[in-house]
Amino acid sequence: MELFAQIIDEIDAAVWGWPMIILLMGTHLFMTIRTKGIQRKLGTAIKLSVTKDPEAEGEVSQFGALTTALASTIGTGNIVGVGTAIAMGGPGAVLWCWLSGVLGIATKYSEALIAVKYRVKTKDGRMQGGAMYALERGLHMKWLGIIFAVLGGLASFGIGCATQVNAIATVCNENIGVPKAVVGVIVALATALVVFGGLKAIARVCEKLVPFMAIFYVAGCIIILAMNYNYIIPALQTIVVSAFAPKAIAGGFAGGGIMLALRAGVARGLFSNESGMGSAPIAAAAAQTRNPVRQALVSSTGTFWDTVVVCAMTGIVLVTTIMKSSSLDIGFIEDGGVLTTIAFDQIPVVGPIVLVIGLISFAYSTILGWAYYGERCLEYCLGKKILIPYRLLYVTVALIAPVIALDVVWSIADILNAFMAVPNLIAVLLLSPVIVKETKKYINNLDKKSDEEIPTV
Fold this sequence. Notes:
Elements: H1 2-15, H2 18-34, H3 42-49, H4 62-73, H5 76-89, H6 92-117, E1 120-121, E2 127-128, H7 131-139, H8 142-176, H9 180-195, H10 198-227, H11 232-243, H12 258-273, H13 280-284, H14 292-324, H15 336-344, H16 351-382, H17 387-400, H18 407-430, H19 432-442
Antiparallel strand pairs: 1-2
């Protein structure tokens, strides 16, 4: 088992080397330039995200599609993932994670645009789209679409389910003494009640859960930053300097210089905001929207809230905590969850409660969002007959996840994330002329209805 874990770790390190970082960050930068800085439309995008358009084609509201996507992105990556990035790459990883979010807004916009443009309507009236349909209908590369869909289906059991349930079980066991096996039963039942209701049931839950969990967690971060206010400026300086330092800086911080900081930050950024991975556009394709650009703008706000706001706040909270606690040696902390727990313990009495509720709600929402992604991917490959078996297997994984070792699963999740991103980024880059054309067509008239006919399958 140790040999297998070592092999997986080596594959993970190889996959997340310079080629993957260049491909991902290069696409973010390229699409930022091609869309003429679509990030400038963030205000309009946020406004559109809470605007209903019931007359447009689609299964759920634009806000419902956004919160379903946010449910899968705002998860343990925002809490445990940022801490792990700092433990691996030092505080400089926070800056690279943040930059991957800022530039990643353009990639999230682009992948959502082609997901909506090339979406299809099933005979029972459901909207389906994503990288697999863009590859098939936009580039006539169905074989690559199938590869993406298979990877997405497999990833849902790891990144979307097992790691999230295990995080919930661990935090409940350590903080309130609930046995892990009991947590597995509760989460499995709660998951089954929602996922067997389909997208509309998932969207209804996410519309209520996502705003609550984000506000609740951010409020906790603000309280900690208020307590650590003397360290905020020094922390920001440390984050920036260490992001470009050729070697790890001193002062209790770990990390191995630019490469480790860059690798850890970008990998955790993708794990958190999923920009470039192709998962969130699957939810965007189901939205009630008049044209591809309108929903693409709404979808792009997910990366802003997830990484530019929530991950950045978590990073600053953790770095100020390390600087404040002079006796804390991050070099001996490999678990990002431990680092985050130490940070929230600074809030008397309610700190652990805030962290527990935040992590549970973040992880549970991710379980729901990825259940939808996984079944859409596998339905693309195997048809509607796979839905019930998939949901049963998904709930089963949720049931057993708390009692299995998941160190290797996290590394496998990283690998699958990268492999999913490759065909999706191919679609984004090769269809960039279409993205530019559609953007020019609709960007100044977002209420214009698409004149593209939606095919029925």
